[in-house]
Design goal:
Distance between the termini: 29 Å
Shape: globular
Oligomer: single chain
Strand content: 5-15%
């Protein structure tokens, strides 16, 4: 089973369970259904910029303490 299939299964079976928990203040969490919505919105935004499957996207993230 691929990661995307596993994720879709978790969204369907556990929509209100925590998918991500952030430990740095402010403490926040995101449920599977919220994460699915965020992923969909991000994908839609990238598509609106003209990106297509197979295109590369660079991410710049802050350093982690862990």
């Amino acid at each position: 089973m691929s990661f995307l299939n596993s994720f879709a299964t978790n969204v369907r079976l556990y929509p209100d369970k925590t998918a991500l928990a952030f430990i740095d203040p402010p403490l926040q969490s995101v449920t599977y259904v919220e994460l699915d919505e965020l992923v969909g919105r991000t994908a839609g935004y990238l598509q609106s910029l003209g990106l297509q499957p197979g295109d590369h996207v660079a991410l710049q993230l802050s350093n982690s303490k862990f």
